[in-house]
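Narrative of activities, Objective 1.

The group set out to show that a structural description can be obtained from nothing but a protein's sequence at a throughput compatible with the screening campaign. Below is one input-output pair from the validation batch, recorded exactly as produced.
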Amino acid sequence: MVYNGFMGTRNQVSARRVRRSVTLSREVARHVSDMAKRRRLSNNRVLLELIEQGIEANTQRERAFFDLAERFRAADDPREVKALGDKLGRFVFGG
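Output recorded for this entry:
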């Protein structure tokens, strides 16, 4: 096998990576380091995974909110409207 420096889509993605600098609190930095040691990964890899998981969780939360809002808009039964409205309120304001 001859390596020509091109390995397909994975290399294309890595070629488009952007370097960022962030400042972490000591507590968060220590937690990241502990996770990295336990999992035998670099701190950067752990941070990347946590960011990716956070983005996915945020996307799922948005999807759940819009699904709930759509159910609220489509509801006809006053009890269901109230229950869904309460859920939307908790979604937006917590609780």
